[in-house]
Amino acid sequence: SDQFCDAGVGYGEPACGISSSSSPSKILIKGGTVVNAHKQEVADVYVEDGIIVAVGDHVTVLDATGKFVMPGGIDPHTHLSFEFMNTETVDDFFTGQAAALAGGTTMHIDFVIPVDGSLTAGFEAYEKKAKKSCMDYGFHMAVTKWDEVVSKEMEIMVKEKGINSFKFFLAYKGALMINDELLLEGFKKCKSLGALAMVHAENGDAVYEGQKRMIELGITGPEGHALSRPALLEGEATSRAIRLAGFVNTPLYVVHVMSIDAVEEIARARKAGQRVIGEPVAAGLALDDSGIWDPDFVTAAKQEPALLSFYFVLYVMSPPIRVSGHDKALQAALSTGVLQLVGTDHCSFNSTQKSLGIDDFRKIPNGVNGIEERMHLVWDIMVESGQISVTDYVRVTSTECAKIFNIYPRKGAILPGSDADIIILNPNATVEITAKSHHARSDTNVYEGRRGKGKVEVTIAGGRIVWENDELKVVPGSGKYVELPPFSYLYDGIDKAEAKYLSSLQAPVKRFKSTA
Ligand code: URP
Ligand code: ZN
Ligand code: ZN
Ligand code: ZN
Questions:
Q1: Residue 366 in contact with ligand 1 by CB distance below 6 A
Q2: In a domain, 344, yes or no
Q3: Domain residues for 195?
Q4: 347: Cβ below 6 Å to ligand 1?
Q5: How far is the CA of 143 from the CAs of 246, 308, 318, 344, 457, in angstroms?
Q6: Cβ(89) to ligand 1 under 6 A?
Q7: Is the dihedral of CA 487, 492, 496, 500 positive or negative?
Q8: Contact 161/141 with Cβ under 8 angstroms?
Q9: Which of 117, 213, 264, 297 is 20 to 30 A away from residue 92, measured at CA?
Q10: Residue of minimum CA distance from atom 9 in ligand 1
Q11: Could you tell me the CATH number of the domain that includes residue 403?
Q12: What is the average pLDDT across 329-335?
């Protein structure tokens, strides 16, 4: 059987089980529980030419009795074909998306990285990379320098190229990092364009200092990574970005929230009425560093120190995977609405690439896998444990992303007129995650050996059945670029909020004048 096929794990080989035979353009899904973020009901779903035509009664094609029929996942945060830290991610727009489809994700939003600061050149490069796409995708764009050209390019990206979000890196000093002056310019420009500002929130200057300290202490191995960039540096940058976004009165999206420190800042701002979105990633919800310090593992690693280092490098991402406790707090924040949607930050390297930094943690390419695992992990960790409902599952894995990036209800819903991106999840089946059976390209998997309940048995993307009976049927070039329009719901009424804010600034002045 191909259930745990071992093809596709080698660098340069196609992902396993992929064939390009076409699927029927008319599909009927019968008897399942159709779950939208607003309600769930037993109903049939009829799909024709890539669009959901009706939710109601029809002839049987796929039997979903006892299963959940839900909108395909949308991963708001991925890096495919990303040139980063002197190497390039193993997954490209075909292999990464094929893996995503096998895991029930039918759309992702990737980060265009400028070329020498040029947004235009960056966009053109990513347009080329994405030609081989087998599922729908959109783009965010990073801003890594500031001048009149960049400012104008941001406008072109929003008005002509379908980009409605810009990411600012407060970390990666000497590479992608920007300073507060640029951050303010970027925030102002985002506000004027109706685009969403996003931040990677870690204090990059302090991280640099932390790295120096580690090297001075002789800690050069992978364990130095997390020690050099503690949660307080994530809290500081999250707080700073939120306060500066509030100062400009523009909505803010904090990517890969990894710590209690950052959650507290987001909670405080949201409570005060500020429009701040917080995105945990699968790794933050599912992992902590206890596996690394497991007594049996440490004993084994003492016999063979290289084993410890090898294990450590695989988990290196930024912000780092934290000590136990942060994971539970992130889950709680997701279940209570302090955090709104789950991404992955899928940025996958093979073990050879990760080992580039085995003797100097500063050289380990940062990033972990997740695009294929996210839907299963969130189901098992959040729904199976009783922390969220099935409708909330749909919201945090799909609907909220579609709303934030302004493509709802074309995406993120099962409604007449919506794109036919649909999954069928069997809550009684189990899934085991292994590098041997996954469809992504890396030879390792940070969730290796993890078992969970809930299995995506069928994925329909753009009206084609692309994943069924543990087999992928994907066609390079079949994925469409989805333009993301500006002025999402996060902008609704923001000027009224601004007027209130400005008058609150003036209140003390008036009081001062009247007493003078
Ligand atoms: O370690 C990470 N997160 N790699 C991807 C780049 C980023 O910061 O999102
Ligand atoms: Zn396979
Ligand atoms: Zn980042
Ligand atoms: Zn990222």
A1: yes
A2: yes
A3: 73-421+468-491
A4: yes
A5: 20, 37, 18, 21, 39
A6: no
A7: negative
A8: no
A9: 117
A10: 345
A11: 3.20.20.140
A12: 98
Residues near 494 by Cβ (< 8 Å), separated by ≥ 6? 249, 250, 251, 275
| Stated pTM of the model | 0.91
CA separation (Å) from 290 to 207, 247, 276, 294, 500? 23, 39, 31, 6, 47
Structure tokens at 366: 């940062």
Structure token pair of residue 90: 């193993």
Cβ–ligand 1 contact at 367 (below 6 Å): yes
Give the position of tokens 């090898």: 310
Query: pLDDT tens digit string along 9-50?
Result: 333 344 445 555 555 578 999 999 999 999 999 999 999 989
pLDDT for position 372: 98
Q: Could you tell me if residue 61 is inside a domain?
A: no
Q: Which atom of ligand 1 is nearest to the CA of 176?
A: 8
Q: Indicate which ligand has the atom closest to the C-alpha of 318.
A: 1
Sign of CA dihedral 84, 88, 91, 93: positive
Do the Cβ atoms of 68 and 32 come closer than 8 Å? yes
Ligand 4 centroid distance, CA of 342 (Å) = 13
**Closest listed ligand to the CA of 201:** 3
Torsion of CA 9, 10, 13, 17, to 10 degrees: -20
Residue located via tokens 């087998």 = 134
Alpha-carbon distance values, 512 to 285, 316, 515 (Å):
49, 53, 5
User: How far does the centroid of ligand 4 lie from the alpha carbon of residue 300, in Å?
Assistant: 33
| Cα of 155 from ligand 4 centre, angstroms | 23
Question: What's the rounded Cα separation, in Å, for the pair 493 and 228?
Answer: 41
For residues 63-71, average pLDDT:
96
Task: Please report which helix (H) or strand (E) contains residue 226, including its range.
Answer: helix 223-228
* Mutational test site, ligand 1, from 90, 140, 347, max ligand atoms within 8 Å of CB: 347
Residue 313 lies in a domain: yes
pLDDT at 499: 75
Instruction: pLDDT band for 307, please (50, 70, 90 cuts).
Output: confident
Ligand 1 pocket member 322 (CB < 6 A): no
Q: Which residues surround ligand 3, an ion (CB under 5 A)?
A: 200
Residue 468 Cα, ligand 4 centroid: separation in angstroms?
A: 30
DSSP bridge partners of 26? 48
Ligand 1 site, residue 354, Cβ cutoff 6 A: no
In a domain, 171, yes or no: yes
**26-30 sheet: strands from edge to edge:** 51-56, 44-48, 26-30, 62-63
User: Measured in angstroms, how far is the CA atom of residue 43 from the centroid of ligand 1?
Assistant: 40
- Domain count for the chain, please give it: 1
Residue with the smallest CA separation from ligand 1 atom 8 is 318
3-state SS record for 252-304: EEECCCCCHHHHHHHHHHHHCCCCEEECCEHHHHHCCCHHHHCHHHHHHHHHC
Amino acid identity of residue 22, one-letter, is S
Question: 137 alpha carbon to ligand 3 midpoint, in Å?
Answer: 19
CA of residue 14 to ligand 2 center, whole Å: 11
Q: Which of 366, 368, 369, 442 maximizes ligand 1 atoms within 8 Å of its Cβ, making it the mutation to test the pocket? A: 366
